Amino acid sequence: MSAGLSTGRERNYKIKMSVQTDISGRDRRTHPADQDESSLKRFKSSSLAPPAPPAPVLVSKDETSLKIRISRYGTAPGRAQHKTLPLEEFSHPRPPRPGSGSPRLSRRAGSLDPSPVKPELKMCEVKLNNLSSVKVENSEDDVKPHPTPILNIKMTGSEIVSECERVGPGTGEISTSVLDEGEPCPQPKRRHQLPKLSSEQLLPNTPCVHVKNKQEAFSPQLLEWCLQRPITVIRGLPQACDMDLSLYTTKSLVECHPNHPVEIRTQMEQSSDENWDPSLTKEVWYCTSSRSHTTIAKYAEYLTTSFKETKEKLGKDFSFNPKLELKSDENGTPIRRTIKFGTNCDLSDEKKWKPQIQELMKLPCWLRVVSAGNMLSHIGHQILGMNTIQLYMKVPRSRTPGHQENNNFAAVNINIGPGDSEWFGVPDSYWGAIQELCEKSDVDYLHGSWWPKMEDLKEAGIPCYRFMQRPGEVVWVNTGCVHWVQASGWCNNVAWNTGPLTYRQYTAAIERYEWNKSQRYQSIVAMVFLTWTMAQNIRVTDFELFHSMKRTMMRSLRQTVLMRQFAIEQGVPIRFHGHKPNEPVNYCMICEEEVFNIFFVKGNERKHVVHCLRCARQVSKDLTSWICLEEYTLEELKTVYDNFVLADRTVPTGDNPLSLSLVNNNSTC
Ligand SMILES: O=C(O)CCC(=O)C(=O)O
Ligand SMILES: [Fe+2]
Ligand SMILES: [Zn+2]
Fold first, then answer.
1. What does pTM read for this prediction?
2. Residue identifier of the C-alpha nearest atom 5 of ligand 1
3. Which of 394, 400, 405 most suits a substitution to test ligand 1, by most atoms within 8 Å of the C-beta?
4. Centroid of ligand 3 to alpha carbon of 525 (angstroms)
5. From the CA atom positions of the chain, what is the Rg in Å?
6. pLDDT tens-digit map of 547-566
7. Closest Cα partner for 87 from 292, 342, 340, 338?
8. Which own/partner contact pairs does 158-163 have at CB distance under 8 Å and 24+ positions apart?
9. Does residue 418 have a cis bond before it (omega within 30 degrees)?
10. Which residues line ligand 1 (CB under 6 A)?
């Protein structure tokens, strides 16, 4: 399976990383591209299943069969993003509550010069949520709960199967949680559960690293630095890696594929310190925008017009980051224009965007779109914008509302220029506090689009990094960091996600996976499927990561046995469906939860609509007229489960200073 996979070896140069913010005198060095053997163009997906017999037509919500990086504007993720929505689509603001959210009529000057990046570095403590117990899986009937199998990860696959068969599925309410038995879904931390911060700590200096040469770029210290901080600006990286960023300029993109589609968000032009409601009478958290579509060439025309107009208007005061004139009418109501943001432009097609994709291979492997040490490279299919490149084309004031990445994965973003982008970032541990504020501000944290008000954050004691990303600068968004971005000038940005093979990243993704289920929000990264494929591809030396992955697999094996058994008890036929390599993951059409291995379709329908057991039972409790489909045999799953063992740290695996888990060379299946 893992032919061609090699150890994710990092070069262990003994250098001291220089840390500074001065970018003057940045020179272009011409080092040859450093080929890292751990980087692969494409990983094969799971070979768990043998070739499948002719399969029925499966219908899932995502007709493109591709998961899509979340659109930041309140469209549910994973849905086709090529439909035009009605104008003035409000992004899930909560219905107003009586007496709440008194309109703020004060118009503030709206600072045009956001806080500059301070030259000093500040160590930032990254805290993981200590998740409190709240939710207990509820049972529909008021009867004595059916006993649960007593399992632990030291048991063999066969022992787990026997124990599950011994206990049986009971009434069919089978937990799909991948957490420990009875462990409640992790709840977001409220602000009062976190320590008080000084006013200095509320506006911390942004971690910033200046990479001066290739050695520094490829040093393990740079990775270590980034993994230890919520967000980092990396300066000088494209130059150090001899990258040609002109491949991503509007001019080059138009020359390559003028008719390539771009999603447009029509927004109100406003300063990054304000967020007006559409009537411009009060400042709010929810963001309003409407969606439409165009092509790269047409957006480029719009960009050119916007650029020329500003140049004419500003004359000698023109800059690539033009100041916004904060005008208001005779009643004091602000006057704001509308602008168009070219967003979520998909550069995944390897034939179409070969030079653009290849150029990014010059980056250190942990920053690449595809690499052996990136969890998202093991899923075996494309998740648009996550394990493929996404392009943003911006005019001044284009806005990406607040969010965490799908399933809390990390992100890499390069500003191509010529203008700057202004970033705001809040450490992962405060996401619950932001969610609390979203709620107070009548907008849904997960489903809605929102732009936090700095004053509200300060008042709530939420720390926020604020900085400029200049052309050629890379922003590393670490696991779970909440962020929002506004262009100060005309600029393009390219971005993608990565999943460093660490316990922290894995558990953050799993916790969000469970939280998403509790919020009926689709997890774009199918964590159960990913865990099974990673178990085949990766040698895990970190005990905590191993333990968590093994637990996910154990829980998933448990579900398979109990669901199968329930189907058998109900007289439901079980058919082997298989899962072809590189085939995307199935999601329940109703609740949008990942269905790994076992799912249900109506026997009498020509097009088979994927249902999870819970949703199938909602249609008929005893599963009358349903068919159970299975993607892997129990034998296959047991083998993968048993073969996944904690790898020996003492076995030489190349330089791995951070004890990141390494990619397996062995073929296990
Ligand atoms: O450049 C932008 O506006 C998008 C930023 C973002 O959210 C990301 O790259 O993760
Ligand atoms: Fe993002
Ligand atoms: Zn369902």
1. 0.82
2. 485
3. 400
4. 16
5. 25
6. 999 999 999 999 999 999 99
7. 292
8. 158/638, 160/554, 160/557, 160/558, 160/561, 160/638, 160/641, 161/557, 161/561, 161/634, 161/638
9. yes
10. 392, 400, 411, 413, 421, 477, 483, 485, 493, 495
